[in-house]
Every structure is written in structure tokens, then in C-alpha cells.
């Protein structure tokens, strides 16, 4: 009846996951109870859960990412403490638990923190920057988000029901094959990534189509803000790379479920094939994450320097070069497989070549600052912190692209330090910069600067104190994923890293405090003009938060930095204060398709993990039926009448107008 | 285990390349970081002395330079990578004094087996080699992937079941070193560290002779016991019955290791390791 599922799946003998799981469950139930009792449920359902508004979906993506950041961060804290104490002892985490933690940490941070954070920001901002009313496929967008949430939910269920993978975040066979990992951990891993992978793929298709097909009048390719370009590049990579991940995991699942031999030791299976396939996805994946961050920094550096982006066309070229070359370097993840000097050298050099466009980007940001009028607001602090940190990460990255150096550093703590250096220093700093920068746009009030700056400084310092010691540990021969060790020379560095983790934690607390304090003071921090930072691109041309239709009139773009041009233009000619002629606007209707689909996908995923076959069929039919019902819908749009558009737009029209016409006075 | 304290020519060459590459890049990186901080400071909005130049958004010369700097660095480093990859190919010979020592390493769950086919002995978790001689390693795995790595001798390499990888090293100085597995392989992974005893070439034959007197015999049967999941805290030694044992393992005539013994059908399978903790 319930497949492999029975009471032994609940880890009654392990207090840590059980207590953690219970706390999360209580928190979720508490919030749910509060929502129901206070009568917020209809609001939540109509305005958020079934919303197909790209801004709402973007916000939900970021919320998901933030919650999962806390989960992944807790894993990180536990790992740092374990390695600080497990010198000549077993520490406090037995291997079967420690191994789950580092596997879950990697999986969560990449798939359920970094990915939803950047996809959320792209969702929120790109249609606004393009001057359009929505993404190309609004309902598909909602489906994508909810399927990602399904994956995250399954990973969290594994905390209390069963176990998570103990194989590392890429689940290399043969360790991840049934003979060496007979538990459900790898199945949790693979099915949550399969389901959320579909979500990511549809998000990618949606955003590529949006950038290619939905641009406002005059917004040709070479007038798009840099963030739109990096979104295009990143989502092209998603569309090209995620099917590889899906296929690879499908093969692993066929091995595990139906006795195939793609990657097994026996019967001609080949682990080297898995390594190649997973990295053929995995390397583009890091650029999927970091390209949008580059876009964010381009916007931030340019806005806060009060200058257009230096070398815009050069930046576009660099972005697209990275997009293409990132598919040609995957082998540098396993130089130590013994492929031979020609292969290693060619892939090593190809990897270094990526450093060229990346270096160009750094220099262009540098020259954007040159001759600027720099305001060191919180987003700009993250950007400057990023530039410094990312260069160091780039240095160590190019270093491990030199095969003979990699022969010493592969899989070491040095490598761990390197990829945290680029992922924290690049992607996470970028996500935080984007969060601070676009928060006023999303919610209509700015974030508290004092707490924001405190969060930056603690995170920045904490990062260095945590990860510089790991570089040194790597130079002392320490490899990654060690549950305990007996080498005295490694110990002090592990202790310093744990201290750094504490500083990082304070940074996260400051970030939470910033949110709390800002929500409390929201009236004082209110952004009435829609343009709190003296912005340059179109997202600042509408109110904060933007109305559901984004723009009462689709803007007419006449050059790069469209809004900046408009402001400059308005300054020269006295701004006409007559009432514009409003028109009806058609918007896509809300749809529960995404939520219902994900509900059935969760059931199906859980049932597949536990071999509950009747439930698999039920979930499959449910998800398919949801899609059919949606496909046969009669009405997919509703009309906002002109008077309603006028009423919404008039609210702060005067303030926005006066800002535009006053802009020159400063 | 300091990478910058190499004890053999491969590690010395590896770490030279490592250090040189860092310095080549620092030449670019340090001024760039300095410029970032300097620009961010000087062009702050509150500095009246800084000139605001909003029109400075393109310069062909600057673009030339900013593409050229990283490109030239990469051309230089690419040369280092190309030459280094060929000279330091793990399979490239590392000439030494005396006759080379053949060693066949097998990663087991979770220990290292070192077979000396010519000396007809084998050891677990301890590798004894003569100083100055070329060491020809052939490596494979009994089950999951691992990576063979002696940091102070240089160049790590994967071990994979059904496949043989090759690595040549040399240890120049007598003494004790440590090796480890650098690829996660399961619950007993951290206990896959092994001792490396580099002894004088004159003492090596004596060590071989004394090891050959061991009672324990390594053959297909005792190997199958050894490859069960578990941690080996001792340092057992064996006489080798059949010098082709490694070939039988690598060609899967001896099937791969069994993995955990299933405690139950349930999802929460406890690690089958005898001594996983």
C-alpha cells in the first residue's frame, strides 16, 4: 500500500533533524493558522498563489530563495562546527548525517537559493525594463515557480521522512547507484531536481521569449539594459543546459528503478559518461547564476555612479562570449581523470579564455565609476565588495584551470574556497545588491540603510574570515567532505573558518533586521516617485509598486538608458501637464494551474521516491488533467477599463511627473 | 602535507607552476583591486575635487587596453598550461635512480591496497617506497570512485572500477608522508588516509624481504574479504599469491565490491560499514 514507506523512515533516534523538522512544521502550521484565523486566505489565494503577475511571481521566487537560504545556511553552520571540533574525534555528527548535510547544502544553495533568487529578480525586473506589461507566458511562469517550490518541499520532507542523498550535491555514480546507496536519499535528490528542473526550464523558455519577442516600441536589442542582456544569455543557457541535467538524472533513475546500466560498474556502465554529462550541464549552470549577477552589478554601478555603463557594446559582446564559451569548458572539472595532456591543456586554455570577457566586464565597471559621482548606498557597497572579491575568486579559478596546478588542488578545500569565493562573492552579493536595489520598486518603500550597511560589512568580513582559511587548508593538502581528520596543521584554520561563519551569521541576522525595521518604518521610507535611486532604465518610469499592468502607456524608447533620456528630454522641454488619454488594458487572468499542478507533482514525486505506485498514477493523472483543463479554458484575459487605469495611474502621477521635470535642477 | 613543501620532482614542478601562475595573475589583480577601491573612494559624490564626466562612456583606446590585458595574461598562462600539461602528464615518465618500482593501488571501501607485483607483497593503508626511484603506479577501484593523492609527491589521479589509470611519481627524501583519498566515497571516506614511508633504496630490499615473511596471503578470497565495507585501523601486510591479482580486479574478473549489506528494505538503510563511526 505505501511502498517502502513505514515508521522506520522517521528518524526517532536522531534528535537534530527531528527537532529541526518539528520546528519548521510548527512554524508553517503557525503561519497557516494565523492566515486562516485572520481571514487572509482569500487574499493569499487570489493575489499571490494563483497570481500570474510576473512581479508577484518574482517576489515569491525570492521569498522561496530566502527561506531556503536559511536552511542551507544552517547546514553550513553545522558543517563548519563539525570540522572545527572533529579533530582526532568524531565530532558531533556521525558520517551518515554529516554526509547528508553537505549534500543537502550544495543542492539547496544552488537549486533552491541561487537559482530562484536570480530567476525571481529576472522575473520581477525584466518586463519592467523592457517596458512591457507581462512576460510571454504568464501562466507557464506560475507553473515554473510552483514546480521549483515542489522540489524545495521534497528536499525538506527528506529531513524528517527518510533521508537525503549522502553522495555530494552531484551524486556521482557508482556511489549514487543502488548497490552503494540503497536508501531513498538519492531518489529524493533526483526527483526533486527533476521536478524543479522542469520548472527552471519553463522559466528559461519564458524569459528567452520575453526578451526576444516582447519589447516596447523603440527598445531594440542594443538599447536593452545590461540586465536584459545577461537575462537573455543566462536563459539561453538554461534552455540549452537543463535538458542535459534532466536526461542525466533520468538515466541515473533508470539505473536505480529499472535496473539499467548507464553508470553502474557492471554490464558496461560508465561513470566517466556521467561525469561528462553532469558537468556539461554543471559548468553552464555557474554562468546561468553569475551572468544575471553581472547584469545586476552593471545596473547598480551605472546608476550609483550617475553615468551610463562604460563600453556598453563591449559588455554585450563579453556577455554573449561568456554564454557561448561556457559550454566548451566542462572537462576542467575532472582534469584528474587521466584524459591525457592534449585534452587537459585544451580545456584548461578554453577555461582561461572565459576570464577574458569576465575581466573586460570588471574593467568596464571600473571605468563606469571613473568620472562618476558615486553614491555608496547599500547596493553600491555590494557591487564594490563584489568587484574586489570576485577578482580574487577569478584568480583562483584561473589557477585551477592550469592542469598541473589542479593536479594538486582538485577537490581540495582550496577548491571549496574558490567556488564559494565566486558564488558568494558573485552570485549572492549580486542577489543582495539586486534585492536592495529593486526592493523599493517591488514594495513601494526603501530598505533601511543602516541595517543594510551593517549586513554588508558583516557578510563581507565574514566571507573573508570563513573562506580565506579554507584556501590555506587546501594548500595544506586538506580535501573536502571530511567528517573528521587527524592532521594537526588543519585544525587552526577550521576553527578560524567557524568563527568566520559566526560573523556571516550576524550578517544574515542584520539582513533580517533590516527587513523588520524597514517594514516598521515603511511610511517614512515610502517611495512616492517610483524612482528612489535616480535610475536610468524603464522600471523606474512607473510607480512603486507598479500597477498590475506596469505601464499605463507603453513607453517609447529613443536610446540607451531610456528613462534617463526621458528625464533629460523633459528637462529641456517643459513637461506637458495635461491628462493623458487612458485606454482599456487587457491582462492575463489569474490561474490556479501552477499551484494545482505542483500539488499533484509533489504527490507524484513523493510516491516515486517511496515506490507507492498507485499514488504515482494518481499524481500523474492529476497533473495532466490540470494541464488539460487549462488548455481548454475559454477566457484567458480580462479587461481593465480605461477609468480604472486612470484611477490607478493618477495616484502618484503628479509626483512622478514633477520628479521627471525637476530632475535637471539637482 | 604542505603543497609548498614538495618532496619529489612532480610535486616540485606542480607547485612551481602553481606559485608562478599566482604571481603572473597578481601583477594584474593587485593594481585592479587598488584601482577599484581608489576610484570608488575618489569619485564619491561628496568629493568636490573629483571631476564629474558623465559623457565618458566609451573610449576605443580604453576598450583596446581592457580586452588586451586579460587576453595577454591568458596567452601567457595558456602557454604555461600547455607546456605544464604535457610535461606533467601523470603518465609521463619520471626518471629516477635504480630500477623503477611497480605499485598497483586499489581503492577499497574504505582503505587503500598497495600491491607490489614484482616483489609479490601487498600492504594496506601504508605505502613503502625507496627514495629516488621512479614509482610506476597503476590504479583502479574495487567499487566507487576515489582519488589517489600524496600531496607532497604531487599529481592526484582518479581510481575507477573496471579501469586503470596511470601515475608516475618519485620521492626524493627519506621520511614519512601522508596520502589520502581526494574524492568522496562514502561513510568511511575520512579514514582513507594512508602512511607513506620513504626509505633508503638500500633498506628497501630488506623491507620487502621482511614483508614477504608475513603469514597472511592475499589472493582472490582474502581480497574479497578485504573489499567489504569497513575501516582498517591497522596496517596489515600480505604475501601476494598471484601477481596478476590487480589485472583480475581491473578487468572485473573479480566483481566490484558489494556496498552496504542491507539491514532492511526500508529507506533509512543504516550504513553497512562495520566500523563506520
TrEMBL record, chain A:
Listed InterPro entries: Cyt_c_oxase-like_su1_dom, Cyt_c_oxase-like_su1_sf, Cyt_C_Oxase_1, Cyt_c_Oxase_su1_BS, Cyt_c_ubiqinol_oxidase_su1
Gene Ontology MF annotations: cytochrome bo3 ubiquinol oxidase activity; cytochrome-c oxidase activity; heme binding; metal ion binding; oxidoreductase activity, acting on diphenols and related substances as donors, oxygen as acceptor
Keyword set includes Ligase: no
Superkingdom classification of source: Bacteria
Pfam families in the record: COX1
Leader sequence residues: none
Gene3D superfamilies: Cytochrome c oxidase-like, subunit I domain
GO biological process: aerobic respiration; electron transport coupled proton transport; respiratory electron transport chain
Membrane topology: Multi-pass membrane protein
Keywords tagged on the record: Cell membrane, Copper, Electron transport, Heme, Iron, Membrane, Metal-binding, Respiratory chain, Transmembrane, Transmembrane helix, Transport
TM region positions: 16-37, 58-81, 101-125, 145-169, 189-214, 226-254, 274-297, 309-331, 343-367, 379-402, 422-439, 451-473, 493-517, 593-610
Keyword match Cell membrane: yes
Chain ranges of the Cytochrome oxidase subunit I profile domain: 43-558
Protein localization: Cell membrane
Principal location class: membrane
Cellular-component GO terms for this entry: plasma membrane
Family per similarity comment: Belongs to the heme-copper respiratory oxidase family.
UniProt-recorded name of the protein: Cytochrome o ubiquinol oxidase subunit I
Record gene name: cyoB
From TrEMBL, chain B:
One cellular-component annotation, GO: plasma membrane
Region of interest: Disordered: 252-277
Coiled coil residues, start to end: none
Transmembrane segments: 22-43, 64-84
One GO term of the biological process aspect: ATP synthesis coupled electron transport
InterPro entries from the UniProt entry: CcO_II, CcO_II-like_C, Cupredoxin, CuRO_UO_II, Cyt_c_oxidase_su2_TM_dom, Cyt_c_oxidase_su2_TM_sf, Cyt_o_ubiquinol_oxidase_su2
Span of domain Cytochrome oxidase subunit II copper A binding: 98-210
GO molecular function, one term: oxidoreductase activity, acting on diphenols and related substances as donors, oxygen as acceptor
Subcellular localization(s) per the UniProt record: Cell membrane
Domain Cytochrome oxidase subunit II transmembrane region profile: 1-92
Keyword list, A-Z: Cell membrane, Electron transport, Membrane, Oxidoreductase, Respiratory chain, Signal, Transmembrane, Transmembrane helix, Transport
Membrane topology term: Multi-pass membrane protein
Family the UniProt entry places it in: Belongs to the cytochrome c oxidase subunit 2 family.
Protein name: Ubiquinol oxidase subunit 2
